[in-house]
Amino acid sequence: MSDTTTSLHRKINGAGDLQSVVRTMKAVAASSIGQYEKSVHALADYYHTVELGLGVCFRKSGPASLMAERKRQIAAGAIGAVVFGSDQGLVGQFNDVVANYAVKTLLALPGKLQVWAVGERVHARLADAGLPLMGLFSVPNSVKAIIPLVGQILMGSETRYSQGEGTELHLFYNRPMSGAVYAPVSQRLLPLDDNWRRKLAELPWPTESLPEVIGDNTTTLRALIHEYLFISLFRACAESLASENASRLAAMQRADKNIDELLENLNGTFHRLRQSGIDEELFDVISGFEALSAEEK
Question: What pLDDT, in 10s, does the model give residues 217-264?
Fold first, then answer.
């Protein structure tokens, strides 16, 4: 009986320590969700400014030739894709959801595939699906760390384009919805969509003074397109990180609830065994007392 209560006491202490870790991870995940969501909201005004600038450039005659040149080069190239996942576990179905969505979408596209994964976990799932993986990026661990990652992706994309490979570029990531819910989404960054270009060209200017492009219109357009690509990649990464932490938070909440139930069962069993032991000792004392009383009589 003593060994059983000792073992239960050890299990209760272990479950309590595990619950402390789980609750710490819950707090970290909840805090991380907030910072990544704030970074996405902070981009809204700047993104709108870039859209207005692109709209001005698209009203000119110069962009048409630039867009046609890019499309001609891309038409002969491969299809590039960046899939955002996670390096760490304890995120539920986070990597499975985005990997399955990316595999289903990419296999339906014609052309040679070139896939880059952000995160070791999603990299392994894409490899199991048989996609041609060209590289692996580490998942940023903070908002500041997103910028170097975006720079690496853009540099690689520009290098392939300058070498005449002219790939399309698709993004796949999980976008946070309400609460801990997220959904896989995709975005085609290159080539730029004609409908998107026309909508930007029709954007009304916020003031009565009509803008003009100073200098070479094509140079200005290239700079604004670069900013558009940067913002799109940054937002995709930040939303993926927010979704990852939301999934981890939900997993930790389930784990916390399971540990509570386990502790309740362990404590109940421990108290029952302890009470049973006390009862047995009392019975032994009473039996001994009655035996001594009978002998005295």
Answer: 788 888 999 999 999 999 999 999 999 999 998 888 888 899 889 988
**124 confidence band (pLDDT: 50, 70, 90):** very high
**Domain identity same for 163 and 284:** no
Task: Say whether both 190 and 283 belong to one domain.
Answer: no
Domain that holds residue 74: 20-248
* CATH number, residue 283: 1.10.287
Domain stop point among 231, 248, 265: 248
pLDDT at 205 over 80: yes
> Which residue in the block uniquely carries the two structure tokens 């006390």?
278
Count of the separate structural domains present in the chain: 2
The CATH number for 243's domain is 3.40.1380.10
108 and 231 share one domain:
yes
Question: What mean pLDDT is predicted for residues 43-49?
Answer: 90
